[in-house]
User: What shape does this take?
Amino acid sequence: MSSPEAAKFVSAGPIAFFGQFGAWTHAAARSAFGPTADYRESSTISLVFEAVASGAASFGVVPIENSTEGGVNQTVDELLTRNLWIKGEVVLEIAQCLLGLASDLGAIERVASHPQGLAQCRRWLAEHLPNAEQVASLSTTAAARDAASNPKLAAISSPLAAELNGLRVLVAGIQDSAENATRFVVIAKSDAARTGHDKTSLVFSTAHSRGALRGVLEIFDRAGLNLSRIESRPAPGRRWEYVFLTDIEGHREDEAIASALAELEQKCSNVRVLGSYPRVT
Assistant: This one.
């Protein structure tokens, strides 16, 4: 379920995560901190950032990118406006599972999940449970809780939701798209020390002039740096202006990156490092 290279952390304080117990972000948090840490549910991504910023949580875990859907805009926007750092990353293969108490599929009369979960498994449901009523739930974890008290109801959710609700994984990997992974980040009040296998996330903005972005990208190229991701987002508080979110292989204290950042600051109106941390993707 989790990347074998998922970062491992130790926390003496609470860890806030987006969603409910049993959700994929909870699974990502457990992959990073282990099963016995003090986890706290957060109904929104913004509340995770607020918990870390206020000191109510030592760390936060939020999704930042999906292999099929792209960037998670709310997480990116929070990173742009909060004075917090990315300290680590976790990548999970999102394999939707059919959970329940039934002894066989023929006993299932209804299948519940979040509408997105049902949509991701549309073809499998049509082929294997064509007569089962599909029920939209507020979340995949809420569906799992409902299935725990009704053997005729199955849920589409995570293996962790099965574990926490006393359900069996009836069928694993029923999503229509086989390649579906989500990248999560651990946020904190500081980033991580160099490991020799790192990634640096940063944002920068360029002037509204021809070739401005190309000039910035040439800085990275001359420094021999590999950009593993780049996307644009509206600049907070500035209409029709944009910032670029970039992931670079290496640590901000590496000579090549430090030199490139210094040159970048001469060309860009805004440059901000969001964090350097161990790379797993």
About this structure: DSSP finds nine helices and 15 strands in the chain.
